[in-house]
Automatic annotation (TrEMBL):
Residues 5-104, 166-257 form the HTH hxlR-type domain. This is Putative transcriptional regulator. InterPro entries: HTH_HxlR (IPR002577), WH-like_DNA-bd_sf (IPR036388), WH_DNA-bd_sf (IPR036390). It comes from the Bacteria. It comes from Mycolicibacterium rhodesiae (strain NBB3) (Mycobacterium rhodesiae). Keywords: DNA-binding, Transcription, Transcription regulation. GO terms for molecular function: DNA binding.
């Protein structure tokens, strides 16, 4: 009997748990379309950029268009699937602004065109309209959910010192730009805290788990006590990033039997779907109304 197909969580971890994917999409949303645009904006080697553009095209986040035949030249345009990552990027932007003070250049404020205010996005429950945190939301496996189906099979490429992801989100890339790091964050949010549980449930090599746990702790996302690894306040603030990534994945990578993860908002008892709202006018945010990300979002 064949193994069950990877679910939406596995597809998300395999794709977004890579330090270059979000950065390439980010630059696409900021106007990069041609190979030279990406190469100029990112400290990325030719081979890695070529591979990422190919994988993002294969996954439907970018669409390749030929604009010259002799010699052949193509541009890469962000698709609806790629563009719909804007809530993830917006949540990362907010987290980096508040929790990572050592940016070489401070991140700009975000302007909500609908109310003309400089704003912060609020994670709000679509069912009841109340602001929610990770403490208000319970996650449970859905019909296609299990740890065995949620771990991507592909190995994450280890970066070299000369091939380091930078850009607007340096610490996010450090802690989430690896499938095991991303998976550890997901596991911690559902209550896992022991090394042995991380290793057995995720099926990762012990060395990989130890390496990523040390990075998460060094960045202040995890704290250790009693041989357990628990999320800090800084780590818990990543809640909107993880939920927007999960919702993106379950929108685009549906399973015939149903979702991989189901979220319940304990405050209202209804299913939890995260809506980002403006803290100035309380209206739901739309990508096209956020000037700090990109005018054309």
């Amino acid at each position: 009997m064949a193994d069950p197909a990877p679910n939406a969580v596995a597809r998300m971890l395999g794709l977004l748990g890579d330090e270059w994917t979000l950065l390439v999409v980010q630059q696409g949303l900021l106007g990069a379309t041609r190979y030279g645009d990406f190469r100029e904006r990112l400290p990325i080697s030719n081979s890695v950029l070529t591979a990422r553009l190919r994988s993002l095209t294969d996954e439907g986040l970018l669409e390749r268009h030929s604009y010259q035949s002799n010699p052949p030249r193509s541009e890469y345009v962000v698709t609806d699937r790629g563009r719909s990552l804007w809530p993830v990027l917006l949540s990362i932007w907010e987290w980096e602004r508040h929790w990572v003070p050592d940016h070489s250049d401070p991140l700009p404020d975000m302007r909500h065109r609908a109310c003309a205010g400089d704003f912060s996005p609020l994670a709000t429950c679509a069912s009841c309209g109340e602001v929610a945190t990770d403490k208000d939301v319970v996650a449970q496996w859905g019909p296609s959910g299990s740890w065995s189906r949620s771990i991507p099979a592909a190995a994450t490429r280890r970066r070299s010192g000369s091939d380091s992801a930078a850009g607007l989100f340096p610490q996010t890339m450090s802690i989430m730009g690896n499938r095991w790091g991303f998976a550890l964050l997901v596991a911690a949010f559902v209550g896992m805290s022991r090394f042995t549980d991380f290793q057995s449930q995720l099926g990762a090599p012990p060395g990989s788990i130890a390496d990523r746990l040390s990075i998460l702790a060094a960045n202040g996302v995890f704290e250790t006590s009693d041989s357990r690894y628990r999320l800090t306040e800084k780590g818990r603030a990543l809640f909107p990033v993880l939920v927007t990534a999960l919702e993106w994945a379950q929108r685009w990578y549906t399973a015939p039997e149903g979702p991989a993860v189901e979220l319940i908002h304990t405050t209202c008892g209804g299913p939890f779907r995260l809506v980002l709202t403006c803290d100035q006018c309380s209206e739901p945010l739309r990508g096209g109304d956020v000037s700090a990300l990109q005018k054309s979002l």
